[in-house]
Amino acid sequence: MNQIKDFQQANRVLRSYIGSSDKLKAGGYSLESMKSLMRFLGNPQNKLKVIHVAGTSGKSSTCYYISSLLANAGFNVGLTVSPHVDEINERLQINQKPLQEPNYCTALSEFLNIIEKGRLKPSYFELLVAFAYWYFAKQDLDYVVIEVGLGGLVDGTNVVDRADKICAITDIGLDHTKVLGNSVSEIASQKAGIIMDNNQVFMNEQSDEVMDVIRNHCKERSAELAVIEDNDSLGFKSELSHMQGFTKRNLSLAICVVRAVLKRDNYRPISSAVVKQSSKTIVPARMEIISYKGKTIILDGSHNSQKLEALVQAINYRFPGKETVCLLSFGQAKADSLLAGLRQIRKLSDRVFLTEYLSVQDEIRKPLDITELGDYCKQAGFKNIHKQEIPEKAFNEFIARPADVYLVTGSFYLMNHIRPIIFE
Fold it and tell me: What span, in angstroms and rounded, lies between the C-alpha atoms of 371 and 136?
């Protein structure tokens, strides 16, 4: 392969891997192709001190907070998250800075040349996870933070065999039920699949249904489980006083993880100054508040009822009594559970703008047709429903309406269209 020159060319090359994995065919997900790929690369993932984060809600935020805490404490930290919001290099960060375009393209070209020699056919997600492990192993990093893509047990990130891997399990709820199971306990079992022998595991207190599954799995794996029952008991009450709800919950989990890592490796504990600095971390499209042309916009990729309920609570706390208008798009896979999430959004507003999106990353995921989405919105009680299938046009119509707060939510793939408009 010739040298990739820019992100545009990189994305064009990477699209050829979308849908190329057998996992996207009948028979479900498997780790076999990923393990073969990592063996071919020399298992670089096992050369890293990994912090592995799974869960239904809060994975990305928790990953960003862990990375921020460690980087602000003076360590060199790799971070990979998915999906990306603005550009592909968000999946390859060091000290929370995505690799710059020339460096990213050079590294990707080298990596793809290696992959082609092996005649392997990974999926888009597998390729980029392997790329992150491979690249991080070539750098002088102290720690690497890895966000699970889907589930945990057979997720492409779940190839680290080290006993010193740290696991964090964020809040678990119903999502991706066709793949992960139809009950919270089934889904929790999939998330618990990242826990390997003798790992340390951290999580906030959750329902008995979730906790029973995680405790049993930890017992089977001889893993040590630490459960956070009170976020205000961590000793940083004043540093976290401006936070609430899920943001405080996720940062508290990150603090516990980092404390344990530093204690294990004989480093000094994180300071209050580091916690305060990290509490200001901006996580793209996760309760991201932006001033745009004098208007307050919130970007948040909440796409299930659990996430949307937490989002609505956060908005009501931050902007009590403010008039809100919403721009939404959801994937076809969310149709079965969509009504509950829309009823949460309806608590904020009776006016909603509907659109679609173009997905060009990970798997082939199609948006729910806006006519069908409009029918769900009627059932949820929305009175004013506006439809425009082109997201850029929908955003212009949406932002022209008078309101106090403008919320863009639903699929993360919608953010790929909207965020560049705001930040161009």
Answer: 45
The DSSP 8-state label assigned to residue 17 in this structure reads: G
Calpha distance 201→218 (Å, rounded): 8
Task: Compute the CA torsion angle 392, 398, 404, 410 (nearest 10 deg).
Answer: -70
Q: State the pTM of this model.
A: 0.93
pLDDT surpassing 80 at residue 182: no
Question: Across the beta sheet with 351-354, what order do the strands follow?
Answer: 288-292, 295-300, 405-410, 324-329, 351-354, 384-387
Domain boundaries, the chain: 7-278, 288-423
Query: Above 50 in pLDDT, residue 24?
Result: no
Name the helix (H) or strand (E) containing 110: helix 101-118
Share of the chain above pLDDT 70, in %: 94
Domain 288-423 in CATH 3.90.190.20? The answer is yes
Compute the distance between CA of residue 356 and CA of residue 329 in angstroms, rounded to an integer.
Answer: 6
Q: What pLDDT digit, counting tens, does each position of 41-52 carry? A: 999 999 999 999
Same fold for the pair 7-278 and 288-423: no
Using alpha carbons, select from 153, 146, 14, 167 the residue that is nearest to residue 88.
Answer: 14
pLDDT of residue 230: 82
314 phi/psi in degrees, rounded to 5? -65, -40
Q: Which band of pLDDT confidence, cut at 50, 70 and 90, is reported for residue 336?
A: low
CATH of domain 7-278: 3.40.1190.10
